[in-house]
Amino acid sequence: MAVPTMTGSSATTSAYNCRSASARPTTPTDPQMCFPRKQDRMKKRVIWGIEVAEELLWKGWELGKEVTKNLALKNLSFKIQKMKYRPPKTKFFFTVIPQPILLSPGITLTLPIVFRPLEEKEYEDQLWFEKAEGMFCVDLRATLPRHHLSCPPSLQLPLCAVGDMAEAWFCLDNVGDLATFFTWEFSSPFQMLPTEGLLEPGQACRVKVTFQPLMAVIYEVQATCWYGEGSKQKSSIQLQATGKCAQLLVSIKHKQPEDQDVEGFQRVLHFGTVAVGCIAERHIRLYNPSVVSAPFRIEVAPDTLTKDQAFSCPTTCGIVPPGEKRCVSVFFHPKTLDVRTMDYLSVLPSGCASQTVIKVVGFCGGPEVSLQHYCVNFGRVDLGERSEQSLRIENRSDCVAHFQFAIDCQESAFSIRPTFGTLVGRACLTLLCAFRPTHPTIYFRRVACLIHHQDPLFVDLIGTCHSDSTKPAILRPQHVAWYRTHLVRGLTLYPPDILGLMLNDKKLERDKNGALMIPTEDLENTPALQYSLIPPTTEYFFDGTRDLAIFAPPVSMEPFEVDFGACLGPEDPNPVPLCLMNHTKGKITVVWTHRSDCPFWVTPETCDVPPLKSTAMRLHFKPPHPNCLYMVELEAFAVYKVCAGRQVRDGGLSAGMVGGLRGGDRGVL
């Protein structure tokens, strides 16, 4: 008798021998489970109110020995039963002398039957009873030991999708008297486990049948179990199963306006813009309208490297039960900024069903950080005073932005607080910019704001310091614009007094913006050079402090970085010599910013450097505390040393400005 059950992902049918009630459950990892088969009960029948066995069977007898079995007759009626019996015809079975039998209601009579074998063969006889209603008999049989395996005549497996697998179980019983070795013979697409084994008398074995159809057809295969001496005996079971084509309908769940989900066209799953480092999730819906389970696989385009995959689908395989739906998650986790990523996901049902290809598209967006102003002008500040201005930084995207200004606020004349921080999406922060000069001169520093997953931003910090005795011309944003134009035109290497003379001698002239330029004969066909926009990353890495630079630096210094290493003390380490070179054609004045409690300082603090010459300086390090690490960025400003009045009069201030000179020095104690 077959009892259908559903286990796991595939349907399983189990056929149990009704006599194997003592069989314990098995698992797929224990396919061959042998267990003692429950002893067969004596089959009884009721004839005219008398309950009596159908037959008496003798097994395991020996020659020359008598074996006695009792035949019980029970009166199930409500009246006295009268009968008589005839003795067996052969001499090998005999009983007591026949005499009339009277059975009251509910009374049982036991009649002993003796079997006396004389030859090693099988014996058969009958014991007849006679009543007023008629006659009936009880068969008497004595059998020899034999091989006999029993299995169900047929096994019906459940419907199975092409490419899927169905399972079924049935019991193979050893109903014989001898230990029996068996071997199964079967054909595709069925498999049986175990294919062979040994069963002791009274034992039963659970046999697992698997069905993996390759086509959607009806399969009927006969499996044969060979056993006995020379494997000449057999028992057969008819295996019946049907293969079906599973169908899987793919659709997009929670459609967006950019999605495309029309039958017969390329399906497109659009993630929109996702911030770099974040993860977006969308879902596709799988519906199985067929009557069988639909196994499936999901694959990403095979030509995409795993490390470069921006799309992923954790569900690589699965099964959709008949008539049910299943949602599968697809994730987009971009890693490359400002890139539109496209990939393909293939949903492959098992068997003969066609695959569905889904195009997945997403754009990786980063933070959109901007500054309120890109130039902070502190104007004129008297020596010893401090000027402050606010600067707002804003993130216009939904992506979190991490920023940091490349400035050592403690050792610079300028400071920006906070120097670093985090901006959540659609947020802004007010920064405090301060200017506290240490010498009466002009100050200009271009500070980079480094942003994670975005090109750097730059802010120009300018200011002018006056003292009672020294009052340089006030630096303005227009001067910075002129300086950059002069830098492109190759005029920054000339001091303002020379530029003034050239302007007076008509060797230079001004353009429409007021910047100096070399006169050309054909102004229409040869426009004057202008300062073009430099990519922020290029400007940051090629700022002239290293071997490579966009423009030749007017002033350079060697070494650029100094490491004092481990200072054992108690004496201060020896000063490190520095060489500052003036590449311009005018005399410059170099002023170092120095904080009184800074462990690093440069001597001389102020010096003049002749044109195209170099000067020696010394870098000192005096650690205030032992067992500490020290690292600072020292800052110097260089300007042409000319008469301030002449600078203003001939308009050479912006051309003569060199800009901030920075150097990083480290010391370890």
UniProtKB/TrEMBL annotation:
Spans traversing the lipid bilayer: 92-115
GO cellular component, as recorded: cytoplasm; sperm flagellum
A GO biological process held by the record: sperm axoneme assembly
Domain CFAP65 fourth Ig-like: from-to ranges: 375-468
Record's subcellular location: Cell projection, Cilium; Cytoplasm
Broad class of the protein's primary localization: other
Listed Gene3D superfamilies: Immunoglobulins
HYDIN/VesB/CFA65-like Ig-like domain boundaries: 154-240
Record key words, sorted: Cell projection, Cilium, Cytoplasm, Flagellum, Membrane, Transmembrane, Transmembrane helix
Biased composition (Polar residues): 1-30
Residue segments, region Disordered: 1-35
The protein, known as: Cilia and flagella associated protein 65
Organism: Phyllostomus discolor (pale spear-nosed bat)
